[in-house]
Amino acid sequence: MLIAESQTMPFDAALPLQSGASIRGYSLSYETYGTLNADKSNAVLVCHALNASHHVAGVYADQPNNLGWWDNMIGPGKPLDTDRFFVIGVNNLGSCFGSTGPMHVNPDTGLVYGADFPVVTVEDWVNAQARLLDALGIEQLAAVMGGSLGGMQALSWTLQYPERVKHAVVVASAPNLNAENIAFNEVARRAIVTDPDFHNGHFYAHGVVPKRGLRIARMIGHITYLSDDVMNEKFGRELRNAVNSDTGYKYSTQDVEFQIESYLRYQGDKFSEYFDANTYLLITRALDYFDPARAFGGDLSKALERAICKFLLVSFTTDWRFSPARSREIVKGLIDNRRDVSYAEIDAPHGHDAFLLDDARYLNVVRAYFGQIANSLGDAA
Predict the structure, then answer these.
(1) pLDDT tens-digit profile of 121-154?
(2) What CATH class is the domain 181-283?
(3) Which of the ends of the chain has fewer CB neighbours closer than 10 A, N or C?
(4) 313 and 250 in contact (C-beta within 8 Å)?
């Protein structure tokens, strides 16, 4: 088993943000796996999605059950092989898993940021990641990779720093959110901000956590990550506790009757124990704002002119949150610019969560792609 070690990199210089604000005195948490080769050509940056972190693979020596969120993808002999690549996982600014975020102290005021933490975007995260790579002495990435929101970051890397990326692997992602996705995010945010314990984002000072809002936000999100087929197969209309009546129902408006209700409440309860409410607001808003074509009148092909690297895009047929049609938009934009792009559309039943799961076809596509990258590095890899 790969043993992971969390590291922290401090930055004193202010980071200008797209909002016009800036942040200084911040730090980024990160982990690395594998060995950087002599010419530093085998580095792969892995970008995380909404509720993940820099802990992408392996376990900590003192936490053997804390498995990295993409451990099936990354490690010795795995699709992203750490025997051949130097893999970097970075926790984004505004997160609640180590990097500077709303729970930390603002060096300019001496007070916890709370709701005063500046709005961050995908582009801001990429700029911060670039500074980390500078500090590690890595000028160019063999690849940048991510799923969902992580895929948006990977795509943004190819546009913000085209010369620094040789390959981009974008999984279950999109060039922007559609109105339905923005709507889901807004409902989840409203659940949080209307929780009486939210206190306009300064709940830390009150010694409380808006757990009710976080629970609902997670329940909404979790529904969108699963496909209808998976929910029906896993839960169907199964009741939690059978009762002695002709129908089996309790006929209650508030009790938990169905197994799917119990499952969602469990997921919500668990999420509310470890995730920060202000972080949830920040990250979902970053999702909403991402739209590289906006500066080009909505012309994605025009926006993608800046990308010069090779691409692998993967989508999943039952993913209705980031549907295959959205990946195909990116593919078309790249083909319009005569870029080198490979595309795999996997017929998987798992919905959006498929990018995290063990589908042999999906994993083999990624394995083959990284195998080609490793072979192109030659002896240096």
Answers:
(1) 999 999 999 999 999 999 999 999 999 999 999 9
(2) mainly alpha
(3) N
(4) no
5 burial level (CB within 10 Å; 0-12, 13-18, 19+): exposed
Provide CATH code, domain 6-176+292-377.
3.40.50.1820
353 marked as binding residue = yes
Alpha-carbon distance of 179 to 323, in angstroms, equals: 13
Structure tokens at 253: 């408006």
Count other C-beta atoms under 10 Å from residue 201's C-beta.
18
Q: Would you say 218 is a known binding-site residue?
A: yes
Q: What is the pTM for the complete model shown?
A: 0.94
Structure tokens at 121: 């975007």
For tokens 């984002």, what's the residue? 201
Residue 288: Cβ within 10 Å count: 16
SS3 content of the chain, % helix, strand, coil (to 5): 40, 15, 40
Contact 203, 228 (CB under 8 A): no
Q: What are phi and psi of 10, to 5 degrees?
A: -85, 150
CATH 1.10.1740.110 domain span(s) along the chain: 181-283
| C-beta of residue 309 within 8 angstroms of C-beta of residue 157 | no
Name the residues annotated as catalytic: 148, 319, 352
26-33 vs 86-90, strand pairing mode:
antiparallel
